[in-house]
Amino acid sequence: MTLLVVGLLSLGVLAGCGGGGSGDAIEMTVEMGINGEMKFTPDVIQAKKGDTLKITLVNKDPAVNHNFLIPALNVNSGQIPPGQTSTIEVKITQSGEHDIICDVPGHREAGMVGKLIVE
User: Fold this and answer.
1) Which end of the chain has the least Cβ crowding within 10 Å, N or C?
2) Total-model pTM
3) How would you write the chain as a 3-class SS string?
């Protein structure tokens, strides 16, 4: 829980520094499947419309592939094997709350979901 709070506070600072579509990507890390748990850490990302997010995805699961999708923005990281990382860039084009999911069969249902909240 402490890691989640620290991550969310860091995102708030980063969003405040890079918001408004200034051209600089806001860098962050999202960990997936820590100790085999079906969740993203952090599971809430905040941004402003016009921002570009550079997200490093780290699969901390010891045995299972995961992915990172934001269907409303057509974002799909593809499968990330255990212990591997991938970096994606996301241009924020729509305000509102957008679902983040892992669509590996059974993972979403097990709670591997999050939110992208865009001002």
Assistant:
1) N
2) 0.80
3) CHHHHHHHHHHHHHHHHHCCCCCCCEEEEEEECHHHCCCEECCEEEECCCCEEEEEEEECCCCCCECCEEHHHCEECCCECCCCEEEEEEECCCCEEEEEECCCCCCCCCCCEEEEEEC
